[in-house]
Every structure is written in structure tokens, then in C-alpha cells.
Design brief:
Elements (H helix, E strand, L loop, with lengths): L10 E7 L3 H12 L4 E5 L10 H6 L7 E7 L16 H6 L1 H4 L3 E8 L1 H12 L1 H4 L8 H39 L22 H43 L10 H10 L2 H5 L11 H11 L2 H6 L4 H12 L3 H4 L5 H7 L6
Parallel strand pairs: 1-2
Antiparallel strand pairs: 1-3, 3-4
Helix pairs in contact: 1-9, 7-8, 7-9, 8-11
């Protein structure tokens, strides 16, 4: 059992979580620092992030969010982790989560703020190796870089690569076919051009949507994501190791999950090294092998695989067939229900 100081002896974290890069980064920190935590699953596709209880913790309706709680119980067995808590029932059956014998000390949202404040305020002793005072300025710079650049750009690549094609297909399907003079629906000819304004607008909107998607993917993936990986590559070459310096810190934990999808995004199964990013590749492989990172990826691993299968689906109908209209609107950001 790990020895804890008196200030953190009965503290633990309730992690409101879904297996995405933003969720992984916080799980990695908790596991690296050996902090007790329980997983509260958040089903993003079904809009649980918009529930009243979740919005009280995360007003922006985004995952992850955490509650720092102080248990009235004595010590917890720190060898018992929440890695196997894959369902809400499992979490509710876990003593520290279901017990009313605790006090919420603080709630946090936004992954970067969560990582910084847990390391700076609540679990300073546990996180001191990953948040050294001499690197604090550099850690903050690169943590902000991840959350304002690398993460959003990688998220845009994912959207244009996996979700936008389905939206475009839906637009094309919804566009009414051109009419002919005899009232039938068939392919237009030079002699029978479509003149109905509503049909022309629908067809133009579908075509524009397709063009925007192609542009968005090209800009996000080919231009910005690639540029940011080159920034990372040059940085770790300069520091001979990691983002904030020569030590592994929370900045690296935050960045690594957003580099992980590189091969899927790149579509040619080339490694970072194959693309000339030698130092970024070495950085990525070092972190990939860390036990806490391996463990973090196992939290709700089945759900993560299922989510990726949905993203990879080529059939837009099957892709959302298990979801109702409300869930589809939430998933594709058409509106908040």
C-alpha cells in the first residue's frame, strides 16, 4: 500500500469519463500518480453530457470532468483500481462511489485545468515527479498548446474524416431528384433542365457541403495537424526528450493521446518516423510503453473499440441505426435537445 500524507490520505477522484483522447489524458495522470479514482461513464452519443447533473460539474457540457471527494472511511486499498469499472452499475456497486459517507471538496472541468489543478493543489505530493517546480512555466506553455492547438485540430480531423462524410451523404440523399417535363423523376438531360428553385437550392447545398468537407479535411489533416506534429518534433529534439524539458510531465500526458490517432488519420499506415518525424516518433514510443498509459487505454476499452467501429462504418444508415433522432442531433451537433 502506498503511503500518503495526511492532507490527501482520504482523497479520491470521481472521473466522469468517456474513452476519448481528452478522457485518456486525465486517466493517465491519475494512474501515473497512483491517485485513487472511480470511473463514472458518460455516453456522449446519447447526450448524457447534457444532463442536469453533469452540467452542474461541467457547464460547457464536455467530458471529462472530475469531483475531488474526501471519504470519511479510513484508508482505501490503493491496489484496488477502477480500471475494471466499465458500467454505471459497476461504479455504483463500488463502495467509495456509492457510499454517502464522503464530501465533495471541489469539481473541475476542462482537461487541462483538471490536470494542472490536481497536480498543483490536491495531489501535489503524488504528482511532484510529473509537475516539477522548475518546469512549471514550460509545462503550462505546452499544456496550453495542446488544449488550444493540437487537440482542437486533431478533433477537426476526426470530425471531417468520420462524421462529415455521413452528413454530406445525408444531404445528398435528402436533395430531391430533378424533375422532367412529364412528371417522372430521372437524370436530367440538356433538353430537360431543373428550374424549381427549391430543388436547385437543395442540390447546391449538398454540393457545397461536400466541397467544404473536402477543404476542411485537407486543411485540418494535411496542413495544421502535420504542422503541429513538426512543432512537437522540433521541441523534443531540442529538449532531448519531452515537451517541457528532459522530464516526462503532465504536458506529455496531455499531448500523447492526440498523437495516437496519427496512423488512422494518415490513412497510409506510415509511422511518424516514416514521415520524417524521428524525434516525435521516439517520444511517442517511449510514452506508449509506460504501464500507466497501457492501463489508461484499458479503461472502458470495449466502449472505445465500439466507438471506433462506428466511426469507421461506411454506411451512414447503419452508422446511426441504433440511435434515435435525438441522439443523432446531439452526435452531429445539429442542436442541443
Amino acid at each position: 500500500m502506498s503511503k500518503m500524507n495526511s492532507s490527501t490520505r482520504n482523497l479520491r477522484v470521481r472521473l466522469h469519463y468517456s474513452p476519448t483522447p481528452n478522457g485518456w489524458k486525465v486517466a493517465i495522470l491519475l494512474l501515473e500518480a497512483n491517485i485513487d479514482f472511480d470511473v463514472i461513464p458518460v455516453d456522449l452519443a446519447r447526450g448524457e453530457q447534457y444532463g442536469e447533473d453533469f452540467l452542474r460539474i461541467s457547464p460547457n457540457g464536455k467530458m471529462p470532468a472530475v469531483e475531488v471527494i474526501r471519504s470519511a472511511e479510513a484508508d482505501h486499498d490503493r491496489s484496488t483500481r477502477s480500471l475494471q469499472l466499465n458500467t454505471v452499475d459497476d461504479v455504483e456497486d463500488h463502495g467509495a462511489s456509492s457510499s454517502s459517507n464522503f464530501e465533495v471538496q471541489e469539481t473541475l472541468f476542462e482537461s487541462g485545468a483538471i490536470m494542472y489543478w490536481l497536480a498543483k493543489r490536491w495531489f501535489r505530493k503524488e504528482c511532484r515527479v510529473f509537475f516539477p517546480n522548475k518546469f512549471e512555466k514550460d509545462i503550462l506553455e505546452w499544456l496550453f498548446w495542446v488544449n488550444s492547438n493540437l487537440g482542437p485540430v486533431a478533433g477537426s480531423v476526426s470530425h471531417y474524416l468520420y462524421y462529415a462524410p455521413k452528413i454530406v451523404q445525408a444531404q445528398l440523399t435528402a436533395a430531391p431528384p430533378p424533375r422532367t417535363t412529364d412528371g417522372g423523376d430521372e437524370q436530367p438531360t440538356c433538353e430537360a433542365k431543373e428550374t424549381d428553385p427549391s430543388r436547385l437550392r437543395a442540390a447546391a447545398a449538398a454540393a457545397a457541403c461536400s466541397n467544404i468537407t473536402e477543404y476542411g479535411l485537407a486543411r485540418a489533416r494535411t496542413t495544421e495537424y502535420s504542422r503541429l506534429l513538426h512543432v512537437l518534433d522540433k521541441r523534443v529534439e531540442r529538449t532531448s526528450g519531452f515537451l517541457a524539458g528532459d522530464k516526462y510531465t503532465i504536458a506529455d500526458m496531455a499531448a500523447w493521446p492526440w498523437v495516437k490517432p496519427w496512423k488512422r488519420f494518415e490513412k497510409q499506415n506510415r509511422s511518424l518516423k516514416d514521415c520524417g518525424l524521428i524525434y516525435a516518433d521516439a517520444w511517442y514510443e517511449k510514452i506508449k510503453q509506460r504501464p500507466a498509459v497501457v492501463q489508461a487505454l484499458k479503461v472502458m476499452e470495449k466502449e472505445a473499440r465500439d466507438m471506433q467501429k462506428l466511426r469507421d462504418s461506411k454506411d451512414s444508415v447503419n452508422y446511426t441505426s441504433s440511435l434515435g433522432e435525438k441522439e443523432r442531433k446531439i452526435l452531429f451537433h445539429k442542436s442541443k435537445m
